Amino acid sequence: MNHKYVILLLTLLMATMVTARTKTTQAGLRTAHILVEPIPATVADSTATSATASVDQNLITLRGFNKRKGDARESFLITNNASHRISNPRITLRYSTLDGGMIHERTVTVPIALNPGETRMAEVKTFDVQHTFYYYAGPAPRKNATPFKVAFRLVGYDIPVGL
What we know:
- The protein is mainly β.
- The chain has one domain: Immunoglobulin-like (Sandwich).
- It has helices at 2-17, 43-47, and strands spanning 37-38, 60-66, 73-80, 86-96, 102-109, 113-114, 119-125, 133-135, 146-158.
- It is elongated and about 85 Å long.
């Protein structure tokens, strides 16, 4: 009978030591449906004769941009709106303050291949190597940081042959 009580006590002890699961996924992503605005066209763009001036800006859509203060990478959803497969889209990203002041502008190649109508998550290395900025629509950091907005322009892409 003493043996039964020991087993019962051990079972109760183990049951009280079990803790609730720790949730590790990020809840309530607010940026998932926010479209990244295109960089507005300028007069210089309409008179340019370069190959980038003739790229149809409606071929891709970016949304769900995410970059927290400490992130080394920026992520976003990219959609191929073209009627053909595209790969390695080259986009210019323009980062600005909430009142419109430019912070940085760069052109990146996104290492991705997309079928017509396909949307995929993409990542690029962040421009913010000092970790002082965060995307305005994401969660605000606990420590001081500057919020930013981002806009994009498609400057080129590849059309894969074969698969």
